[in-house]
Amino acid sequence: MLKHVVVVYKDGMPVGCGAIKPYDDTTMEVKRMFVPWEHRGSGMALAVLQELEQWAKELGFAKCILETGIKMPEAIGLYKKSGYAQTNNYGQYAGVESSVCFEKSL
Hints:
Blueprint lengths: L3 E7 L2 E10 L4 E8 L9 H15 L4 E7 L3 H9 L3 E3 L11 E7 L1
Parallel strand pairs: 3-4
Antiparallel strand pairs: 1-2, 2-3, 4-6, 5-6
């Protein structure tokens, strides 16, 4: 169950979301980042990600990690632009060739 979720609304409709969940005592995992095609490029995903990072920091976590697909160039670009560094695939993504994982110190 995800307890820390950000949803962005525009004209009463959800247009972006993301969540964080504890991975370990010092690390939050970013999950469920999504912005519909018609709202991409508007800065919505960056705003959601920054809000999630701030929330993780306020909760006392030192780092965020995340996974995305290798066929998601826009997501990979967002994470790199936001200061995430590619890292070895972790947990359930270890050995999954279609996954790419990132981390960022807060």
